[in-house]
Specification:
Blueprint lengths: L3 E2 L1 E4 L14 E2 L3 E2 L5 E4 L9 E3 L4 E4 L12 E3 L4 E5 L3 E3 L3 E3 L15 E5 L1 E5 L2 E4 L4 E5 L4 E5 L2 E4 L4 E5 L1
Amino acid sequence: MASYAGAQSWNATATTGNWSTASRWTPNTVPDAISAAVTISSDITTAHTVTVRAGTTLALGNSQAIGTGSGAVTVETGGGIELKDGITIAGRALTASGTSSTASPSNIISSLTSVSGDNTWSGDITANTSNNVRFTSNSGATLRLSGDMSLSGSGSLVLTGS
């Protein structure tokens, strides 16, 4: 049986895509779906569909951390992706379902955040603004968006920087 925990780092270049193997994580446990913070800094050489669930943050520190190719990336309401250290995520369509919060940006998870460095998301973006989609750039960081953007819903698309 796999052991589960809340904050994990992907510690290997995996070609199997089996995220349920505890030995691929530091510490040696599989991230759970509740309030998990996952950091990936190594290459993944296959295309995967990626879903970031509510209450979960996926921190990417490598341009190929979510694989190569065109697999879809979805950030569910209340989930978030962090880009770190000047990376470019290329050719990946992003669907963001928002935060479901009107709180100040410092108190909520942003759908997409540039944490450090000059980061780029290059791919089409679909934002369901019914849940107030937020894209954020932290102090000293840059977030560049490249691709077609489509909005749906009656809420807001909020762009913030500090």
